[in-house]
Amino acid sequence: MTRAISLRDVTKIYPRDVVAVNRLSLDISPGEFVVLLGPSGCGKTTVLRMIAGLEDITSGELLLDGELANAVPPGERQLAMVFQHYALYPNMTGQQNISFPLKIESPGRDTTNQVRETARLLGIEDLLDRLPAQLSGGERQRVAMGRAIVRRPSAFLLDEPLSNLDAKLRTRLRAEIATLTRHLGVTTVYVTHDQAEAMSLGDRVAVMRDGVIQQIGPAREVYQRPENVFVAAFVGTPRINLLRAAVHAPLDGRLNIDFGTQRIQLPQPLSPDHQMLRVQMGREITVGLRSEAARIASPQEMRPTEALLNGVVQHVEFQGHESLVHVSTGAHPARVEGLEAPRPPAARRARGQRAGRKAPLRRLVGRYLSR
Ligand code: ATP
What we know:
This protein is α+β, with helices and mostly antiparallel strands. Helices cover about 25% and strands about 30% of the residues. The protein has two domains: about 230 residues, Rossmann fold; about 130 residues, CATH 2.40.50.140. The strands form four sheets. The chain has a six-stranded mixed β-sheet with strand order 6-7-8-3-9-10, sandwiched between helices. A five-stranded antiparallel β-sheet has the order 13-12-11-14-20. Strands 15-19-16-17-18 form a five-stranded antiparallel β-sheet. The longest helix is centred in the middle third of the chain and has 18 residues. Adenosine-5'-triphosphate binds next to strand 2 and helix 1. The site of adenosine-5'-triphosphate (ATP) has 13 residues, from strand 2 and helix 1. It comes from Streptomyces mimosae.
């Protein structure tokens, strides 16, 4: 069984009037994997704890499968929560730790098969006889996951479960968590402040700030169509370039974006994203330009759908499969980062363009964000 979780206009106010969650609404379908993403203190953990029943809801409604659940005791919610600090019992083996929730439920019961099946799912059959002190961080986290899933909960609530692990293990385990929760078909709410983790995991990502969801949607949509500057800047590595600019009235019907020291003319016909610029005419805007949407090219290589921004290459960061090129453009803020693909001519070009030489940056197809 898996459950639908809904929050309706939920607010949490801690003592001293700390508003941790502010009129938040969220509908999570059965079997869905939703990630709550945001900076430290934005209220992610509080949302999870309210769903789990570990924190009272100040106002608003929590519905589990459509039933009001604000007052349902935590133990009756059939939810399993895994925390950042996986508290395993140090004097119990993996087997005993995983079987613990079952033993609490019915003390005399033989749990061997259930524990073995859970251990098989997590690939930890060989570790069941060991004490936590004899396990690595990643192995301990798997045992903690085992303890959470052994009762086959109807939903998982995971609070930064990988943040104690090193980068390599984190990447591996997050793929495993995604596979496991999909295999079990269990509704999952996953809290993280790591945007790369969020983007790789969820069916939907909810970006939070100051107790409010700023945007919720599939990772690709949040990345490509951020609804405001905060979301644009919080999501994506390298960080999006945010350039201040003004939209000018067209003389010849082609819109101009004025970056102060230089202007670009938008290609015609305007794309749907650019259409909204007509209403911004004469106003200051922030242009969001993802690194991969800009590349180094000469004016001769321009296509009709591209716009040219002149700049000077300041620095090239080799990153293996691509290079990050820092370009000063005279726009404000002055520096723009563009990615160079690994094609040999492109790489040669980037190397040749040392500081002081003009390097046109083309294909300015970033999304235009109103301020
Ligand atoms: P982090 O990523 O650092 O865990 P978070 O996004 O999970 O942060 P919360 O832990 O939900 O944020 O905290 C949200 C806000 O509520 C913060 O301002 C925090 O200081 C405050 N807060 C959390 N717990 C309490 C509490 N028990 N009493 C008072 N204020 C609290």
